[in-house]
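User: Thanks for the earlier help. One more: Deoxyribodipyrimidine photo-lyase. Can you show the sequence and predicted structure together?

Assistant: Of course, both are below.
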Amino acid sequence: MEKISIFWFRRDLRFIDNTGLYYALSERNPVLPIFIFDRNILDKLPKADARVEFIQRTLEQLNKPLKDKNSGIKTFYTTPIEAFKELSKTYTLEAVYTNRDYEPYALERDREIENFLKEQGVSFFTFKDHVIYEKEEIVSGSGSFYKVFTPYSKSWKEKYKANPPETKPSALYFDNWVPLKEEKVHSLEAMGFRHTDITIPSNTVDEEIIKHYSEKRDIPALDATSRLGIHLRFGTISIRQLAEKALNLNETFLNELIWRDFYAMILANNPRVIDQAFKPEYDRIPWRQDEEGFEKWCQGKTGYPIVDAGMRQLNQTGYMHNRVRMIVASFLTKHLLIDWRWGETYFAEKLLDFDLASNNGGWQWAAGTGTDAQPYFRVFNPQSQTEKFDPQLEYIKKWVPEYGTDAYPAPIVDHKLARQRAIDTYKQALAN
């Protein structure tokens, strides 16, 4: 049998500027692209999950141009190790190419696959693709990773401007694909999933939105953010191409992409942050086990309109405006003194653009437990945040139509008392 190479699609669902795919096709062997619907992940998800549907639909779209090349994406619904056992029996493999993922599960998975392939005499090549700079590429003068964003971003920009990363041509320019007969992507139904009514935003980069991002990004009633999060999460757009546009259009938007790299770097250097505070002393905080309060927060029934609007937007659309994300996270961790991990887990289930590093970083920032976090004594006032960012109540009225009527609940906590309780609790815990 002719030797082939595998390209393993993961968080890089595109042909344009796909680093690992480009290098796979640049070698002499024909390339078989695969995607594994990983049961280690999927079995834990609700059966109506818009992200799974998005992946499945994207793979079907990617499959179409490959049909013209008499090829296709071979999909699996199993665990990665079982998929590679099957591949090694079916084909004579020389090498497997893929792009790196920095989450703890992904690292463990890749070690298992690399060891298995090594036993078979198959090479395993990984490439940087999901971020601009990896965990040890931006370091301080002392050689350690940055723990504060501003100096990190300064070093990031200096490195970027001195040597911008190259983009790779489309993989569709190549013709060395493994022939496949009418390969079909696993259907949602075959995997036990159902269709959802959640709309996925476009992956078109709106340059006008990016140009005006600085002055409009904090107003939740406006459609003034890129909504590209899910596409960055699953790699349906190139981070390098987006960063290049941002550099030329708006530095504030570029900073958001740098935050993404920053949090990915923090996770890669400190995998313990997935279930522990970045600042270990903050794990001494005695969080309240308030399941009733948490449920009201989840449902958007706290009696704080800006908080409730945000949670209802999330529950109905899989999206929440970034300014409101900060407000609702502060409310949960400060007003209700509920563990940030509860909120992080809820967001992980609901957000279309859920990314472990960014979600963890954002929640620890809000709770004061993370790197470069807001200080514990800073407690967002939902009322003043409303007056500043939703003064006409357009956002609130859209998502909380009963606001201002008897049907709307009274606040579940008093702001002034809750704020003082949070400050006192944090102060006491950190003094021990």
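User: Great, one quick takeaway?

Assistant: The longest helix spans residues 251-269.
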